[in-house]
Fold:
Amino acid sequence: MGDDNTDFDRLLAGGIGADDPKLSQVAAFLDRVQTTQELPGVAELEAAHIARVRASLPVLGTPRTQHRERPASRTRRLLVGLAVGLVASLSTGAGVAAAFGVNPIEAITKLPGFPAQLRPGGVDPKNPNGAGDPTSIPQATGVPSADHPGNGNGQTAQPTQAGGPKPSASNNGRGQDKTHPTPKATKASDKAKSDDGSPRATDKPSATPTKKDKSDKDKD
Amino acid sequence: MTIGDRFAEVLAAARDGEDWAWAELYRELAPELLRFLNALGANDAEDCLGETFVSMVRQLPGFEGDEAGLRSLAFMIARSRLVDSWRKAGRCPLQTELDHGTEPTMPAADAAALDDAGVSEILAALSPDQRSVVVLRLLHGFSVAETAEILDRSAGAVKQLQHRAVSALRSELTESGAAASPLTEVGEVS
Structure:
């Protein structure tokens, strides 16, 4: 086979002539193949075939298409990232505030620029004195009444007080924190009322006002 | 004519889907591919050529190599499309037996004067793989290694195919009228 491969290489190179009777006919035939098999023209086929190529290009997702989609996807990623970051920071802040015994919502309301009308203990334009707001009225006085002898420590649990600080080691039993001036002012005024013997402070020492109590307040 | 130094630029543009780059690749490769398909007896060589370029679109993003490598890839794809077309047609162009029982069709001395039909007829006597080796090596100048890559064979298998192709051609040409060949007579005298 090695000789035959050498012969083939000689045939390709045209190195075999009439002196080699075995391969001369093959050499003549291969020469004829080279002359008859000319390169065909493809000019009339080019347009149709290039059109087929162009039609198959969108399937691959050419870079032009990718360029068009990039800005939209980048903006979407940015917005989603901002939203996730905002939620995470708020959750973390609320968690930290709760761990330190501070009501996070109340802390937010004390931020500079926060509207006073939206603060839980803010001034009610309809009722500037704060009377009639069950959520800000302290439910106990420092003077024990005859009806409730065991309630004379001046501080009772107020589970229904909305927006107020939760009882914790830092502020439980000490009344309102100094950092909460609005509830404190309300409590001070109520305390003064109770010292004066006003009906509200003395008649409602219980921790949980009943429906009847609320209806009485509304009448007042 | 080759693309030469501009090959990297043309290849990158073709990957980006630029029409001008595909047109340049087409003008460079299509004539050779069409001749290859015709020589192997494609049923519809022009359609097969179009399918070859569509397949190149899919394979070009993963191609790494030079101009010669892309040329080999194009021939490899063309042969695959040709085999697919044979399968679709339900037939493979098996070698056609020449009619040796009647009068010799031509004297061996006229081998150099064969027309296109005669050349095609004798080429058809070879098996498809033998014909592929002869056409790729003789007409398109591929090396044994390149031919092996195109045919998805080993280099040893390609050498065996070309050996058998030469033997088959010699047999066909001799049996078709070797006795009257002046070349043979000259060889015998010498």
In short: The two ends of chain A are 121 Å apart (CA to CA). Residues 2-31 of chain A form one domain.
